[in-house]
């Protein structure tokens, strides 16, 4: 008998991420082109690494303020104020160890077991699993594909949210690239103000947009004490996935509660990591612009190559760095993704990881060099023509 035999816990009842499960056995294959994870193929730029390195050399290796260093909270408040032409104050910012940690904290702050949460589907798996771990009663409202892009029936969303405690939105969306317009956000906020429903807005792809400087944000329209929590991350905009740094924007009245909870999960984000984050916020705009130009090329290559393959339907995304596509005549996405990984040596994420009903959908991350993407699509072409 092992220690785990007979163990029942909420954690054990949660299934392993389908992408992880699929990718794990292939992690050692250097010839495989991994398009299944959501991260760019560039590593963090030097202007972010150097101040972090210096901070370590300077002995910034101890515990620090639970809510984060005041200079980073202030820099983020100014960054958001400038980006959204609004006023965000540093007393609303909490520095977290990643967007994932920020999502967990938001749910810990708001949820009790049995509370109803509404969100859209398909969805980044963490956004379903975290509320599940908190024993939420989850209702999903579908995003619907059409030739013009993905859309959401806002009335259906608001109807579902009318009896919910939390409305979780992820715009720009992983995996579809769908985004809410500012007008839709206003309608949602006005309705939630009436019903008292909390909005958790996951905006980690706010800067990965192909028109304009940033996607619409609830930061632009919410008052400080509105029931709105915004989740952000350094991972995607500044190629910092491995640093594990993010932030929450909260009503000031929730900040002491947040600080209390943070103590019991990560205590504080490492100061040297925050020094890197500070450099990203202060000096990162040219880097973001460069990356968006690369992602645009990656998107164009991916859409062009996928749309010329037989039996594949793909909708060009306006934001985030994913192509989410449907393959005709496929009934088991996980099996096919496994075969593609083994035989074509390309890592694609199965659609059912984002919504169990999407068994003939797949996601690739196109935040990669064009030549690598072409190689991946050449391999896919050969694989699909041999089937
Ligand atoms: C929608 C969404 N939210 C949150 C995250 C978490 O990002 P991180 O934990 O790297 O900050 C991701 C990562 O892929 C994501 O796609």
What is the residue-mean pLDDT, rounded to a whole number? 96
Helix content: 25-40%
Named CATH topology of the largest domain: Aspartate Aminotransferase, domain 2
Query: Unreliable segments (pLDDT under 50, ≥5 consecutive)?
Result: none
At the fourth level of CATH, the homologous superfamily of the largest domain is Type I PLP-dependent aspartate aminotransferase-like (Major domain)
Structural class: alpha/beta
Helix-strand sequence? HHEHHEHEHEEHEHEEEHHHEEHEEEH
Number of domains: 2
End-to-end C-alpha gap: 45 Å
Strand order, largest beta sheet: 2-9-8-7-6-3-4-5
Task: Quote the beta fraction.
Answer: 15-25%
Return the CATH class of the largest domain: Alpha Beta
The hetero compounds bound to this protein are:
pyridoxal-5'-phosphate
Number of strands: 14
From the spread of the alpha carbons, the general shape counts as globular
**Major beta sheet, specifics?**
8 strands, mixed
Helix and strand layout, with pairings?
Layout: H1 10-13, H2 18-23, E1 33-34, H3 46-57, H4 70-83, E2 93-96, H5 99-110, E3 116-121, H6 126-133, E4 137-146, E5 149-152, H7 154-161, E6 166-170, H8 182-195, E7 198-202, E8 228-233, E9 246-249, H9 255-263, H10 271-283, H11 285-307, E10 312-314, E11 322-327, H12 333-344, E12 346-347, E13 349-350, E14 361-365, H13 370-385
Parallel strand pairs: 1-12, 3-4, 3-6, 6-7, 7-8
Antiparallel strand pairs: 2-9, 4-5, 8-9, 10-11, 11-14, 13-14
Helix pairs in contact: 3-10, 4-10, 5-6, 5-9, 11-13
The structure holds pyridoxal-5'-phosphate (PLP).
Summarize this entry quickly:
The chain is of the alpha/beta class and 387 residues long.
